[in-house]
Amino acid sequence: MTGATLRLNVTCTYAVPPSLVSRGDKSAAIIVFMTTPNAFTIRPATSEDVVAIHALVRDLAIYEKLVHLMVSTPQDFDRELFGSNARIECIMAIEDDTAVGFALFFHNFSTFLGRKGLYLEDLFVKPECRGKGYGKALLVRLAQIAVERNCGRFEWSVLDWNTPSIDFYRAMGATVMPEWNIVRAAGDALTAMAAMKVRPSGGRKVAWVERSDAHQPPLELTPTGTGGLRGTERSL
What we know:
globular; disordered N terminus; 2 domains; disordered C terminus; Aminopeptidase; alpha+beta; 5 helices; single chain
């Protein structure tokens, strides 16, 4: 399709041998192994990594031919990874004290399984550092975290033209799911969707209760006749 990019969903669950699962605070585990001649480490990201993370994301955007869509800043990553309401996580691939790759992830949830899952938003290794097993090491660490946290699934997306990555994921045991497409609303489309009027059949009124007010009776939204709503009420 002209002007459109298809991403294929990938689902994988790994059975990790107990000998590979770290003890103690497992989600904060550090994996270290030796290459020739460089030392390689996988560790959780810290706030000192946000500039490197941003640079790696830009490298990824260039590789995926999507750099025109990138508007994020190091401050965005600092806020979302390490702020008071942080919901995302990141692990770093370090070669000789230099960040050469990363994997950013968060939890989703499967209603069918009744269990949370691990969703990999992005994984990237610098081109000059590929072929050393770093991407595989990042995926294995994420699979370990998914198992440690009792996740039902480990999922991510891949561009449909990225045949090397698709082949790599399949070799790792993942399943590409071509029957699924990603649906997205962003920018003006998202704003327009949020502003849509909802008019259920039968003359029913629509009520929206914020989660913090869930113990309160539902608030009925009544049009004022001037396009607005009474008080602080808002239309759905």
